[in-house]
Amino acid sequence: MSGTLTPARTQGDPPAAPPPxxxxxxxxxxxxxxxxxxxxxxxxxxxxxxxxVGVFAVLVAFGAREWGFVAFLALSLLAADVVxxxxxxxxxxYLFPGLFFLLVFQxxxxxxxxxxxxxxxxxxxxxxxxxxxxxxxxxxxxRVPDSPAYAVTVLAREGxxxxxxxxxxxxxxxxDAAGAPDEGEGADAPADExxxxxxxxxxxxxxxLTDPDGEVSLGTAAxxxxxxxxxxxxxxxxxxxxxxxxxxxxxxxxxxxxxxVIGFRVPLATDDDPDAGSLRTQDGRTAYVNRPLLTWDEAxxxxxxxxxxxxxxxxxxxxxxxxxxxxxxxxxWRVGVGTANFERVVTDDRLAGPLLSVTLWSFAFALVSVxxxxxxxxxxxxxxxxxxxxxxxVYRSLLIIPYAAPSFMSMLLWAGFLNPSFGFVNVVLLGxxxxxxxxxxxxxxxxxxxxxxxxGFPYMFLVCTGALQSIPGEVKEAAxxxxxxxxxxxxxxxxPLLMVSVAPLLIASFAFNFNNFSLIYFVTGGGPNIPEASxxxxxxxxxxxxxxTLGFESGGxxxxxxxxALSVLIFVVVAGISAVSFRQTRALEDxx
Length: 592
What we know:
Elements: H1 36-63, H2 67-85, H3 90-117, H4 129-139, E1 141-143, E2 150-158, H5 172-177, E3 203-210, E4 216-220, E5 223-226, E6 232-234, E7 240-243, E8 247-248, H6 251-256, H7 258-263, E9 266-267, E10 278-281, E11 286-292, E12 294-297, E13 302-305, E14 311-315, E15 320-323, E16 328-329, H8 340-347, H9 349-384, H10 392-399, H11 401-404, H12 407-417, H13 424-429, H14 441-469, H15 473-481, H16 486-514, H17 517-523, H18 543-553, H19 560-584
Antiparallel strand pairs: 1-11, 2-3, 2-8, 2-11, 3-4, 4-5, 6-7, 9-10, 10-11, 12-13, 13-14, 14-15, 15-16
Helix pairs in contact: 1-2, 2-3, 3-19, 8-9, 9-14, 9-16, 12-17, 14-16, 15-16, 16-19, 18-19
């Protein structure tokens, strides 16, 4: 054999160098990381986007005059810039997003709920006093009897005026166009005359008017102006349909700007005739002279009806303009009412009794639901924990079905099963009997308890099964050797050890069932109703469902302030019971 022999390398020798000319194969290169410049550009882009969104949110809150939200958003944006634009607060970069969303979705919601609970906020009190007064003056306008009808063509052009009549809502011209007092008298453009879209934000509206005598004029937010007849386009019947420099709005354009057109006014008032009123149109084709029926006195903050000289005075305790005989002008405005919403719970004779009944039922429902689901879950867990039970896995799987199925679907199915007329329970199981499961007060309560037991016991079964398997078998075996009966073993050994793990979950279950809105909503809807209550309250209503009814489905109008007051009371009750219960369960820690 020819060639050179390579001596064997011992363990301590360094690795041999490759022969000259041999190029080692390069290993796989690590992924290329962004360079400092790329990272900086990404950071700048992220901060620019964050600031753009933040400034937009601040401007929206500012436009809505929500000063609390303006301050919160501005401070949050400033904090985000300080945290992410510098390298001094590295831990805060990870904590800031979670802290921000905690403040937005938890703390801010709670604080705002408490704030609203001390106000009269509701569907008749959603705006401030200035906006309410402007709306009252606007809707009080009526057509002057026997006033002439003007043929109208609505015009528009690019301009700087606001869409609601082509004038700035805070200007004197806009106030005149609204048929209300000018800025010196404190009137603004009506709050409900908002734009219909971004396209109207830079448009000025006007009316091309043709009076009954065929004379053509231009009506703007500043008043009626003469026009050059050579610049006017007319039809055969003499109706003016176009004007040079303006765009005539077709039917589709009028539909897009409906609110702006309806709210637009051409003032007719002059120094010689300050009560001449204004021209308005409801259909975009014909305009009539309208005159306000109410006048506002700034000095006394009163509204006077020109028909009967009735004087409406601002009642700051209730948020209404009220006459001497008790008549109220709507809408009202938001005011602080102190503890009136909380006092109403006990001082309203028609409300105190039904609310007390609902409160007692809420406690009873939560307590019975927790006890029944727990003991059924423990019983089934003990049965299927016995090793002599055959097919335990199959039975356990079947017991999980009510828990695995969507709860709202199960609730709707049970509502159908318990229908008094064609439900499965009455028609099939009871042979056609008409048992009023959902219309009788006591049977309806029993029905929701049974449905909640069906929905809740699988959860307790799972929890108790896991807790039982964690109890050492030697403890139970020692008790049997000492002669303890199965009942004594359960009472003195299994149940105390089980409560160590399950007690906090029982407290959470009580809080959940105390506010189990979905069950009542889908199964009974809170009914059957209690007729003597001043608000819509049913026999199976929980307090949380009453809150929902007050806020969204009340026949007397949405009463958000009162609903928030009840929410605060619910929070105090649940938090108090939970705190006491957790303190009492500390004694179970010594069992281990």
